[in-house]
């Protein structure tokens, strides 16, 4: 396991592995679940067009029979239900010429903190073995709605793969409004870099020069990555894949309720200002003097 990521050969991976590949010069990584047969199930944005009115069984059979022109090797490469962001592709199309890496589970805290980049390992153990990961991934592939709406910070491809391996989801988000960073270590790293620089600024008086300041920033960054890891966070719950649609629907309804309350609060006119009234003191009656 390297400091940046854990590169593997194709012969080393097996069904149920959480794999990923770096893209755009190590700017970000794309994650998925290897389901065997050189096939990968991963999560992306929902397709814009398709047979939105078909149920899952009809859509599966029709799309599998149609195939795609982009990949002549596998006729079902690119299969994706109309109202879902979960997609099945071949390993070649998933990698797009990039190197293959395997995500590690049950990493010791020291190893996790030593990583230079997030999104390569977690302290959380895998749940149910390889068969459970494949079952969750295939279930979400063939169900309309899949894994919900894609969001780069709250619900991305790494979050999808982490759920397939662990069955864990945030209970309700990281903030009072039901929103927050998901389980993705990649998203935590993206937010953690500027946040670490900001939070480490007060310590500049204690840092001896640029090297000391860099060490403090790195420490804050690593600590931030660690406390947002799914294996450490306390705001996660185990959700069975059959109950995932109901769970996501509840979270969506809660978010919409909070948004509606905020909008209503913003539309309400401000309370009228109270005019200052001057209170007159009672006049004292002059006392009559009798002669």
UniProtKB/TrEMBL annotation:
Gene3D superfamilies: endopeptidase domain like (from Nostoc punctiforme). It comes from the Eukaryota. Residues 282-291 have a biased composition (Basic residues). Residues 20-173 form the LRAT domain. InterPro entries: LRAT_dom. Pfam families: LRAT. Residues 257-291 are annotated as: Disordered. This is LRAT domain-containing protein. It comes from Urochloa decumbens.
